[in-house]
């Protein structure tokens, strides 16, 4: 048992001495406390996961004899001096966590916290299984494991040591800032306890206060950072395959897309574009003129993103290898010699991304790609993965850092994030005013600042479509907003109906890319015949028509860390029905999708939380707080809109560059109170961060005289091409008049809907004479 010997109160820290360790409690940001237990005199620096941190925030410490009470902005903590048992409180003094206990036995540090029977555990990043992570044990160790990602497979490629303990009205988050191989036993050995163990010589814990779930996620992402706005094209639809292995084949795929009028913004070049799998090269026979290829595809509105693996081929005539050797840039073995691994190119060395200089060097190598015309970079195998070792990764005693003092076990989980960071910064240096796009397979907490993440090598099976929802949603609650699985599935042969259903879901998943493994059957939208093609085409077109709404959700993710695709519990935390619900998802604040996860199924049960909902397809109004049986014909993803929502939409185009941006449509779903927003910027530069964006909000309500709506420019910093506005007010019949305060408007009735045409400008409207 640990025990406080002496302690001192500073203005910004409580520092206490234990036997061999020191305890330091600080308030890095409002609403959270950092509790750091480290070997005496060796205070820990935050890992690269941490984005924002203020070591000088004030604390107040009160001595109650048997316990100390630490108070900071928005939180407080009591600490028993005899046992180190802690309780954590929100700003109103409500306990969020009680009985938290750090211990150290036989050199192993452990954090234990009781779990109430009703408490759920969300987060934990990229994990298999359903929404609530209780009842299993998880390991944080980035791993490329080719086995099917079934519920018992753990770990995968990304590690986020972040757990949200959800009890209604008392939500709290625990982030362990520890990149080593930690174990998270979430009520498995002992159903009533969460136990975290680490091989590190102490604990570096951040307790993040709620009491609401959205607040916890917002605070966690203030600490570890948020996704910067991606270029708009990266939110478009993307096609990949291992591999489109020649320029001719890539042209053919793009031609198919254009002829079939299926939108497409990105095409990926998987490993076969290279010369003998040497990164930063092109195969001279199959890709003779990459510049011409990419310029031609760009004229079709399609951008190319090549894959880059960290393994650099051992080849004395290959500059990335010779330079790396000359400067000592590669990871070394325990004897200090460049470590050799085996991947696609044969023998390879691994860049030591732990060194800032290596990250810079690696990033600079990407200039050649940009000069040739690539639009972004896909980082793969960055767990890092090797073929020649049963552990699938580098030896634990491999050496990192300029002086070789960091062993691999200490930095393994950071390797992927570092590679993504190096890549992103390389792209940014070469194109300072463009938004970089990096896609990464591996990562640690904070990866969202550097890259989008796809969930790796899933299978073309229904279970993996189903599992992708809770997986992506828990990643969203773990700070990663820009995520998605391989649509259609990677390993194994896809089938038409599965592709159709998966493409429908993909259309509303933040990252939307169809990808398939070598040796599997083709799975582009048209390969399964005209019926499936038509379903996929419609779904992909919907993605484009919904971009104004999705882009606004992306913007909220970039500002507050608000997940784009999220479980219903995020938006309806008081509803006991939704706590485990993972076969339905909210897309942004006002849209819910309820996909089908089995072949042949044409109806499904849907739970609608309290309030009124509108069936997107039929316009029918449905009461919330209960289940409904709804139609789900193959050509339709069941979608529901919250009554009162105002959704910004446009129309589809073959690529984002061809979107007709002259007019925006706001779809209004009337209710007693209405609200919506539309975020708009140039979609490609960093000007938005300097205030060059527009934020429109719309509010409305109903009174005796009818219905009113008010459009307001909350922020007007961007000279937008959008000059015209169309309001579609759903389900209004028998309107007598529409008047506007400001420029006159045109209006007409279209079936059940009222359509109003107006300029895109602040205004208010009244609809009168409703029945
Ligand atoms: O050993 O580059 O997850 O998307 O197509 C497999 C080939 C290496 C794994 C990636 C996958 C990619 C594949 N890569």
Largest sheet, described in full? 10 strands, mixed
How many helical stretches? 13
List unreliable stretches of 5+ residues.
none
How many extended strands? 51
Termini gap: 73 Å
What bound compounds does this protein have? ligand MIG
Shape: globular
Helicity level = 10-25%
Mean pLDDT figure: 97
Sequence of strands across the biggest β-sheet: 48-51-46-45-44-42-43-47-50-49
Quickly give the structural class.
alpha+beta
Radius of gyration: 27 Å
Beta-strand proportion: 25-35%
Overview of the molecule:
The chain has 771 residues and is an alpha+beta fold. Helix content is 18%, strand content 31%. The protein contains 13 helices and 51 strands. The chain has a ten-stranded mixed sheet. The longest helix is centred in the middle third of the chain and has 16 residues. It is globular, with a radius of gyration of 27 Å. The mean pLDDT is 97. The site of ligand MIG has 10 residues, from loops.
Topology:
Elements: E1 6-9, E2 14-17, E3 21-26, E4 32-39, E5 60-63, E6 67-72, E7 75-80, E8 86-89, E9 95-105, E10 108-114, E11 120-123, E12 136-139, E13 158-159, E14 162-166, E15 172-176, E16 183-186, E17 193-198, E18 203-209, H1 213-224, E19 238-239, H2 247-259, E20 266-269, H3 290-299, E21 303-308, E22 312-313, H4 319-327, E23 341-343, E24 346-349, H5 356-364, H6 367-372, E25 377-379, E26 399-400, E27 406-407, H7 408-411, H8 415-430, E28 438-440, E29 443-444, E30 452-454, H9 462-476, E31 483-484, E32 486-487, H10 496-506, E33 513-514, H11 530-545, H12 547-560, E34 565-566, H13 568-571, E35 585-587, E36 591-593, E37 603-608, E38 612-615, E39 621-623, E40 626-631, E41 639-642, E42 645-649, E43 663-668, E44 673-680, E45 694-703, E46 706-716, E47 724-729, E48 737-741, E49 746-750, E50 753-759, E51 763-768
Parallel strand pairs: 13-29, 19-20, 19-33, 20-21, 21-25, 25-28, 28-30, 30-31, 32-33, 42-44, 43-47
Antiparallel strand pairs: 1-2, 2-3, 3-4, 4-18, 5-6, 6-7, 7-8, 8-9, 9-10, 10-17, 11-14, 12-16, 14-15, 15-18, 16-17, 22-24, 23-24, 26-27, 34-35, 35-36, 36-41, 37-40, 38-39, 38-41, 42-43, 44-45, 45-46, 46-51, 47-50, 48-51, 49-50
The structure holds ligand MIG.
